[in-house]
Amino acid sequence: MPKINILKEAEKIKKPYIPYHLVNVDNFHVFLGLFEGDYKKHKHPYDEFFYVVLGEIQIEMDKETVSLKEGEGVLVKKNTWHKSKAKNKAVVMLFEKIGMQSDFA
Amino acid sequence: MPKINILKEAEKIKKPYIPYHLVNVDNFHVFLGLFEGDYKKHKHPYDEFFYVVLGEIQIEMDKETVSLKEGEGVLVKKNTWHKSKAKNKAVVMLFEKIGMQSDFA
Predict the structure, then answer these.
(1) Given a cut of 90, is residue B100 above it in pLDDT?
(2) Which of A1, A5, A66 sits opposite B3 (nearest CB)?
(3) Which residue ranges form the domains of chain B, and what is each CATH number?
(4) What pTM did the predictor assign?
């Protein structure tokens, strides 16, 4: 398998909040997201792990808002409403089950 | 869920090549490894994704050796013999199925 340079891959992403696939890990996958501005509030039927590679993001959930900087991660548990935001461009690596659907608020 | 600062967590790891659990993502988990020196050649029945947070590592496989620096990742496919090495301390974030057994050479 070829190695993946995360920031080099991220440079190819032009639009925010569109999953950019990196690799499948069995029935899960690793993908990147360019976060910029507000995304729509949504939830999923499975867990989702966020890890910030570059920049800073916020994830608003019903009971808390988590601010994440480079090198920080958080799990958003299944069925948790969440809304991502970033003032400036940020690069996020995500791990989740393949084919996960979003339910928008 | 509390956020996780990867490098702060890594400071708690004292011994190389012992999985340090961070979080479950459904039936997968994210964990850290301190890589230093040579690990034993082994394989698993499922895929394993490696992402280097700090330092530099090598993963020797039958047909290739992959060198990874900070910000680089690679997938080791299921049933692939692999042996990890690091000249100096490195911190690696790993993503794999929970409860995965290793088969040593």
Answers:
(1) no
(2) A66
(3) 6-99 (2.60.120.10)
(4) 0.96
